[in-house]
TrEMBL record, chain A:
Chain ranges passing through the membrane: none
This protein's UniProt keywords: Electron transport, Membrane, Mitochondrion, Mitochondrion inner membrane, Respiratory chain, Transport
Listed name of the protein: Cytochrome b-c1 complex subunit 7
CC annotations in GO: matrix side of mitochondrial inner membrane; respiratory chain complex III
GO terms of molecular function: quinol-cytochrome-c reductase activity
Functional summary from the UniProt entry: Component of the ubiquinol-cytochrome c oxidoreductase, a multisubunit transmembrane complex that is part of the mitochondrial electron transport chain which drives oxidative phosphorylation.
Similarity comment: family membership: Belongs to the UQCRB/QCR7 family.
TrEMBL record, chain B:
Its membrane topology: Peripheral membrane protein
GO CC, any one term: mitochondrial inner membrane
Pfam families xref list: Peptidase_M16 (PF00675), Peptidase_M16_C (PF05193)
Protein family per UniProt: Belongs to the peptidase M16 family. UQCRC2/QCR2 subfamily.
One MF term in the entry's GO annotations: metal ion binding
Subcellular locations according to the entry: Mitochondrion inner membrane
Protein name: Cytochrome b-c1 complex subunit 2, mitochondrial
Keyword Transmembrane set for record: no
Peptidase M16 C-terminal domain ranges (all copies): 204-379
Top-level taxon in the UniProt lineage: Eukaryota
Keywords, alphabetical: Electron transport, Membrane, Mitochondrion, Mitochondrion inner membrane, Respiratory chain, Transit peptide, Transport
Length: 124, 461
């Protein structure tokens, strides 16, 4: 399941976007996951069928990298350490690699439900 | 509460709908329909897409896109099958699920299949839905996404099941083996990849996508319809097939050459023996069409035309002493070659005995010791079979489409009837002698300890 977000609301209003972009950048760094070498999409809880399905659809390389990042972060967390500055996730590396797939699966499920509860009007 | 006036209004509405809301052009079963009863196809070319139709009277239509992309033309194993399985999956405009549900709502049926020469995408529907399904087929061949997750989640597992199934059907295996022995490459490629084929190496969504670009190019497809007028079909094809790729790089498998030989495959699931000779190409090819072969197949027979009786054909007489064996003689016609096969299925011992008798029967034809009456019967049967095949809508669709994309003519059954009628006993004798003198392809699948070698049957490979 993708995390709830106001992104569409904000993107529709340019002034709001301009105002919030620096805040978002600050928040991204302050949240602390980048210091552990994670990406934002690594934080999506994976205990749901949709996310499990999305993980299966990841390309092999992405999937491998994701597991690597998570294991490294776990190790760092145990050792109470942060990654050296050079290895931390840079803002431009922190892109959405999983949530587009999740959204696609959600759309598929919604379409199926809509078609299942479809009301048929006979052609006149 | 529903008010009385509202109820009344609804009732009025319903009544009105029943009596007069139907459009004037809607046709019931009893009304005289437009369209000819002729079984010949009208052909034309719309925007460099070949279009053929015959306006058979009736409330339903069958529409097919026939692409010259069968296993014969695939650049690597499995691509044709992959292309077939990707039909009616997600496109740029709508999902595969929506395609299926929408056509269900219209009462249509969609199917995709392939032969050695063609990939066929077919839709069956009510006559008035022609625009919808023409658009759908145009969309499927030009805008399918060929996405990775569909390949991994749907195509590959289904294909593995199909391969698994194929490896247990000995008659299919024997036919494939006979083709590969007879033609090596091209027509010799198996219709379905066997379970031992290393598909991962060749087949993925990208290679299938690349293949689809040339397979579904405008010059490579024909749109064939049964039960639609040529004018209407041309109009919709002109409108909806604009995004079909226009590449000129045609797929070519090279000309077919007959080799002959023998192959024996051990298999625990049953027994099958195929004896194959160079046969007649399909009628649409023109020059290499030999009506004698069709008559020879009818004379040897196989499947009985009379229920609950083995029939009176030569092969059924040969099989009489060997209960449980089924023999079928037929000519598999392709665009530039053909394979005349005699196929035996049953227990290994019965196949052994029956095949020796069958070859004897063929030798009798070659020496001319066949009664005139038998030949007359065979000509009549062959003519009936050819005409029936032309009249049969499905066979007509595929053979017409293949004929058009291979640059030949449409399937015209009047001419076939004439050419079959002209076959004489002498011609039959000459043709069967030539078959026996030439190289034969023999494939045995099953219990190889019992199944005969070509040598045992007195055939030279």
């Amino acid at each position: 399941m993708s995390a709830p977000s106001l992104i569409n609301f904000i993107l529709k209003r340019p002034w709001l976007k301009r105002a919030l972009t620096p805040v978002a950048a600050w928040w991204g760094n302050a949240a602390g996951y980048r210091q552990l070498g994670l990406r934002n999409d690594d934080l999506i809880p994976e205990e749901s069928e949709i996310v499990q399905q999305a993980l299966k659809r990841l390309p092999e390389k992405e999937s491998y990298d994701r597991i690597f990042r998570i294991r490294r972060a776990l190790q760092l967390s145990l050792q109470h350490q942060l990654l050296p500055k050079a290895e931390q996730t840079k803002p431009e590396e922190d892109y959405h690699y999983l949530s587009p797939i999740i959204r696609q699966i959600e759309v598929e499920i919604k379409e199926r439900n809509d078609l299942d509860s479809l009301k048929v009007n006979k052609r006149k | 509460m529903i008010s009385r006036s509202a109820l009344g209004r609804n009732a009025q509405h319903a009544l009105r709908r029943q009596c007069c809301a139907q459009p004037a052009n809607r046709r019931g079963f009893a009304a005289a329909a437009s369209g000819s009863t002729s079984f010949s196809y009208e052909t034309s070319e719309v925007d460099s897409v070949k279009v053929a139709s015959r306006d058979v009277a009736g409330p339903t239509t069958r529409l097919a896109v026939v692409a010259k992309a069968g296993t014969r033309y695939q650049p690597a194993p499995g691509l044709t099958t992959g292309l077939e399985y990707f039909a009616f999956k997600n496109t740029e405009r709508r999902s595969g699920l929506r395609i299926v549900r929408e056509s269900e709502l219209l009462g249509g049926q969609l199917l995709a299949y392939h032969t050695r020469e063609a990939v066929v995408l077919e839709a069956k529907f009510l006559r008035e839905d022609l625009p919808y399904f023409t658009e759908l087929l145009g969309e499927v061949i030009s805008q399918t996404q060929y996405s990775t997750h569909e390949f991994n989640e749907e195509i590959e597992p289904t294909l593995h099941l199909r391969q698994h199934h194929h490896s247990a059907v000995v008659s299919e295996l024997a036919l494939d083996s006979a083709h590969s022995v007879a033609f090596h490459k091209g027509l010799g490629a198996p219709v379905f990849p066997s379970s031992a084929t290393p598909l991962d190496k060749y087949m993925n969504e990208e290679s299938i996508y690349a293949f689809s670009k040339s397979a579904y190019a405008k010059s490579n497809i024909a749109v064939v319809a049964n039960g639609a007028s040529q004018a209407e079909l041309s109009k919709w094809v002109g409108q909806f097939f604009t995004e079909v790729p226009n590449t000129s790089a045609a797929l070519s498998g090279g000309a077919t050459k007959y080799y002959g030989g023998e192959e024996r495959i051990t298999n625990p699931h049953g027994n099958s023996l195929v004896i194959a000779f160079p046969g007649s190409s399909s009628f649409t090819a023109g020059t290499s069409y030999k009506p004698e072969i069709a008559v020879l197949a009818a004379l040897l027979g196989g499947k009985s035309t009379i229920k609950w009786s083995p029939g009176f054909s030569l092969l059924s007489k040969a099989a009489a002493g060997f209960p449980g064996v089924s023999i079928l003689a037929s000519n598999l016609a392709y665009s530039d070659a053909g394979l005349f096969i005699i196929q035996f299925d049953g227990s290994a011992e019965a196949i052994r005995g029956a095949s020796i008798e069958a070859v004897k029967a063929l030798k009798n034809i070659a020496t001319g010791s066949i009664s005139k009456e038998d030949i007359t019967k065979a000509v009549a049967l062959a003519k009936y079979q050819a005409l029936e095949a032309g009249q049969d809508i499905e066979a007509g669709l595929v053979s017409t489409g293949s004929g058009l994309v291979h640059g030949g003519k449409a399937f015209q059954i009047d001419e076939i009837g004439k050419s079959v009628q002209a076959v004489s006993g002498d011609k039959l004798k000459a043709v069967s002698k030539a078959l026996l003198d030439g190289k034969v392809s023999v494939s045995a699948v099953g219990d190889l300890h019992v199944l005969p070698f070509a040598e045992d049957l007195g055939l030279n490979v």
